[in-house]
Every structure is written in structure tokens, then in C-alpha cells.
Design a protein that fits this description.
This protein is α/β, with parallel strands linked by helices. It has two domains: 3-96, no CATH class; 101-366, no CATH class. The protein has helices at residues 3-26, 44-51, 59-70, 76-96, 114-121, 144-152, 192-213, 231-247, 296-299, 302-323, 337-340, 351-366; strands at residues 105-108, 141-142, 165-166, 173-175, 180-181, 219-225, 252-258, 270-275, 278-284. The strands form two sheets. The chain has a five-stranded mixed sheet with strand order 1-6-7-9-8, sandwiched between helices. The longest helix is centred in the first third of the chain and has 24 residues, at 3-26.
Length: 367
């Protein structure tokens, strides 16, 4: 048996385990998409479907994946896409059937849809197909400053219909004063009756968010920080974490991934204990030039895989540190917490006031 055949066998075995687990727990039917049943190709549509399916792959489709793995790649792009699909599917199968992952909350804080996409695609959170419900920052765009302020204010006044307007360029509802854009609510049904359906949808997502925080499980927040990271933003994030911890029965850790430019003092990854049971970990993971996270030609490329695994390596290590749970993100992705966990700032007793006051003092001296 060749190495490639052995790899295929592992993939099929993992899929069968995944299929049995889904059927036992959810009674899921494997209908799939008809156009991929016969002979799927390594085109962008298939890569998109295989890596983030709207329905689990059925046996014929997984055989199609096996054939793709067996055949000689026609190009470097084919090889990269093949490698990506294999890593995503095997990790997805491992994680979605890992019952221990249900003992923690993994929540996106935006700033866009990428964090939610990553944790769902790689199986760290169940998909909507498996009953997972959407949370308030999953499918919106909001600047990190806006999100931090919204969290610190406990969502107060966010859904005031008088503050919601239609974005001229995107043609979707948004809140200019909060820099909060409803990317997936462009349909007319969300505009009528003074945005009643939109407000109702997000009121439910906020209630769901708060209910999760009160379930006593450890909570890990993944935050794609798209805007420049500054001292002011750091202070806002620390204040938001303080508010979150007061509402949470379990421990919390915010993993802030800096994907845009940053000041030099924030270039080094670090971890700060904001208060007992509440931690901020900050790492840098600059996106590739011109990268579009939902374009298969980008995310299934070698550079795209490295970028996604930049998030996932840190997330894996945070989960391990907080809970001891091992997750799969591709078998050759290196650990990173040895490079940032040494930077912890803590004294475990009333430390939240020290951290916040030191940041405030720093800002005053720099103004």
C-alpha cells in the first residue's frame, strides 16, 4: 500500500466514524448535492462544498474525494487544493465527533465572518445543519472598537431602529454610529416595519449569546482584529473582557488575532490575565496580499492554508491550555503557545484594576 493509499484509507475510516456519529446523534440523512455525485473535480465549487458543506458528504461523494487523492494532480493548484481538502475534512471529522468539545463554548467576536467560518469548517463548532444556532457576531461586520464598546455596554441600545439605516454601497442595514453592518440581512423582509424582523433576529442571537455565557462552561472567544491595534483599542478590549467575565460562570479567554497593521509594541505575542478567570491572548497573523477568505482560490492555496492555520494553531493551544482537550487542525501544524504563553502578566488577586489602571495611565502620558 502506497502512502497516498494509506492516507485515503484513513480519510475514509474517519468519514465512516463521522457518518455513524451523525446518524446516531442527529438522524442526519446523507443527501448531498447531485451535481457532485458522479465525478467531482478540483474546481472552486467543489473545494467550497467539500470544505464547508451545507450537507454532510455522502458515500459517493467521499469516494470522489478518494479518487481525487489517488489521481496524479494536474497542476500545482490541484495539489494545493487536494492538500487543503484532505486536511480540512480529516480535521472536521475528528473534531465534530469529539464529544469533549461540547464541554466548552467557542464563540466568534468578528470582526467579520472569518472566525465563525473557521471554527465551523474545521469542526470546532457544529454547523447549522447539526443544530448550532447563530450568535450576534457570527455573520456581521463590526470594527473591533465597536465590538468592544458593544460588549462593555452589554448590548444596551444596539438595536434602536432609529439608528439603523441602509448602507449606500452594500445595500444592507447597518448602524453607522456603532460601525455595525448586517451583511446577511439585505432582503426586503428585514427592512419593513421599521426593521422588526432584523431586530427580532438579533435580539434572539443576543439572548442565545448570554445564555451560553451562563452555562458554566469555559468560553473561548476568537476575534479577527482587522483594524490597527492601538493602546486605545487595548484598553477597550480589556474593559469588554471585564464586563464579559462578570456575566460568565466559567472561565473566559479572548484570542485576539491581529491581521492588520499594528504598533511595534504589539508585534510580540502575549497573554494578559485581566482578572481571575479572564485572559486576553494576542497574536499576529497578517493576511496574504489581496486575500479573500470566502474565495476557494484563495483559502485552498498554500498561502491560504498557512493563514487559516495561523488562527487554528493558536486556537488549538488555547483550548489545550484552558481545558486539556486535543483538537485536530492538520497533522503537521506546529504548536505556538511556547512563543506567547511566556508573556503572561498576572498576580491572580485583584489584577483587573491593575491592568486597566496601568493602561489608562499609559494613555494619559502619551496624550
Amino acid at each position: 500500500m502506497t502512502a497516498r493509499q494509506a492516507s485515503n484509507s484513513v480519510l475514509i475510516a474517519k468519514y465512516n466514524t463521522y457518518k455513524i456519529w451523525l446518524e446516531r446523534n442527529f438522524g442526519t440523512k446523507f443527501d448531498g448535492l447531485d451535481r457532485y455525485r458522479q465525478s467531482p473535480g478540483l474546481d472552486a465549487d467543489f473545494v467550497s462544498y467539500a470544505s464547508l458543506p451545507t450537507a454532510p458528504l455522502d458515500p459517493l461523494e467521499i469516494c470522489g474525494v478518494e479518487n481525487l487523492m489517488r489521481d496524479r494532480p494536474r497542476s500545482i493548484l490541484d495539489q494545493q487544493r487536494r492538500n487543503y481538502i484532505h486536511k480540512v475534512l480529516t480535521s472536521q471529522f475528528d473534531n465534530i465527533s469529539n464529544d469533549r468539545l461540547q464541554s466548552i463554548n467557542i464563540i466568534s467576536l468578528g470582526s467579520d465572518c472569518l472566525p465563525k467560518t473557521l471554527i465551523t469548517k474545521w469542526g470546532l463548532r457544529k454547523s447549522r445543519l447539526l443544530g448550532e444556532k447563530t450568535l450576534p457576531f457570527d455573520l456581521v461586520y463590526a470594527t473591533p472598537n465597536a465590538t468592544a464598546k458593544i460588549l462593555a455596554d452589554d448590548f444596551a441600545g444596539l438595536l434602536d431602529p432609529e439608528k439603523i439605516v441602509i448602507h449606500e454601497g452594500l445595500n444592507v442595514p447597518w448602524i453607522p454610529s456603532r460601525r455595525f453592518c448586517f451583511n446577511h440581512e439585505g432582503a426586503d423582509e428585514f427592512r419593513i416595519n421599521n426593521y422588526a424582523a432584523l431586530i427580532s433576529r438579533y435580539e434572539e442571537r443576543i439572548r442565545r449569546f448570554k445564555k451560553m455565557l451562563s452555562n458554566g462552561k469555559p468560553t473561548i472567544f476568537l476575534w479577527n482584529v482587522l483594524n490597527p491595534y492601538t493602546d486605545e483599542l487595548e484598553l477597550q478590549i480589556l474593559s469588554a473582557i471585564h464586563t464579559l467575565k462578570l456575566q460568565t460562570k466559567g472561565s473566559i479567554r479572548v484570542l485576539a488575532v491581529l491581521t492588520c497593521e499594528k504598533t511595534e509594541r504589539y508585534a510580540i505575542p502575549s497573554t494578559t490575565r485581566v482578572m481571575p478567570g479572564a485572559t486576553l491572548t494576542r497574536i499576529s497573523n497578517r493576511s496574504p496580499e489581496g486575500y479573500v477568505f470566502f474565495d476557494p482560490a484563495h483559502y485552498a492555496s498554500e498561502a491560504g492554508l498557512r493563514y487559516e492555520q495561523g488562527f487554528l494553531c493558536a486556537l488549538r493551544d488555547v483550548i489545550d491550555i484552558e481545558t486539556g482537550i486535543e483538537v485536530s487542525i492538520g497533522d503537521d501544524a506546529p504548536g505556538v503557545h511556547s512563543t506567547w504563553e511566556h508573556g503572561i502578566m498576572s498576580n491572580d488577586s485583584g489584577y483587573e484594576s491593575d491592568v486597566l489602571e496601568s493602561r489608562r495611565s499609559l494613555l494619559k502620558t502619551r496624550k
